[in-house]
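Researcher: Good morning. I'm working through a list of sequences from a screen, and I'd like to move beyond sequence-only analysis. For each chain I'm collecting a predicted structure so we can compare shapes side by side. This is the next one on the list. No need for commentary yet; just the structure.
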Amino acid sequence: MFTPVYLDHNATTPVDPVVLDAMLPYLSSQHGNASSRHEYGRAARRAVDEARSKVAAALGAHASEVVFTSGGSEANNLLIKGVAACLKPGLLAVSAIEHPCVIRPAEQLRKRGWTLQKLAVDANGRIDGANFQAVMAEQPRIVSVMLANNETGVIQDVESLAAQASAAGAWFHTDAVQAVGKMAVDFRRLNAAGVHALSLSAHKIGGPKGVAALVVDKRLDIEPLIAGGGHERGLRSGTENVAAIVGFGVACELAAARRLANGERLLALRRRVERGLRALGATLFGQAAERLPNTVCFAFPELDGETLVGQLDRDGYAVASGAACSSANPEPSHVLQAMGVAPELARGAVRVSLGFVNTDAEIDGFLVTLQATVLRLHQLTAMAV
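Model: Good morning. Structure tokens for this chain:
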């Protein structure tokens, strides 16, 4: 069976075998509802509580601060819409490079009387300091800036930004979905700096799809998106996905234990990719900024990213032309456009996101195949002119 080399770990990761083993009993014999009062239910409740503690421990948080959701998109929507529902409409500020699951709910709030300001970034994808200070002077009520970007891997100085936002009287949220497991993420430290809520997702760290969490300062008032039986401290009703939550807890535990070793391995692989890309004449985005150790975003002038991704897929390498959640959108990346990248170059963007299971040989094979593919596409383009 043909199995392409997987270089798209920012989209999702394979479920770790240890995680799967932990989940299996809760997909068969341990099938209780965590709200039931009998032993089956009590066993499920213990499993959920243990997983909650593992997620919290991996982030330096308290278990009571962890609210389970169905995914990172729900966690971000819960924060943006839920906090806004408890406040008088005012100014909401989000970075121009946020994931759509932050930008879209922020845009929806305009219909409820909120004013939206998108925070500018520089050419390397970092928050523009002068613009940020100017927006904070307008005293926003809610600010959301992602910890690490899903397309470029660029890391923001969230502690400094949160401190400024907190001084302006704003509630500050960070989407840490891509950051957890790839860099140090300490909610207690971030909270002390002024971060009031943080989102993460299981399937980005070797856990199952369909479960995530919002880690939230209990001083923050949030109106639930989903009302019902009062699950998750009344913030997210619905019968708990016990198997997925168990897997999430184990995935967080493993990610915390392996982060340093995996980070060194990923950085070595990333640098190997980047050396090859520079030799081929690629443009690398955000390369002057601090980035996640596994993420490379690049383009070749005059080559379409979707076309290049399709050719590489046929040749045995799975990469992305943009964020998986918005890959149906033919428009150039809003992240790259915010960085000032010309639309024609942005349309050529390709993302390689590595996992610690990738090997030097796979990277070398990818670069050889990429060189041949780029040459072939340039020849086809020349013939079409």
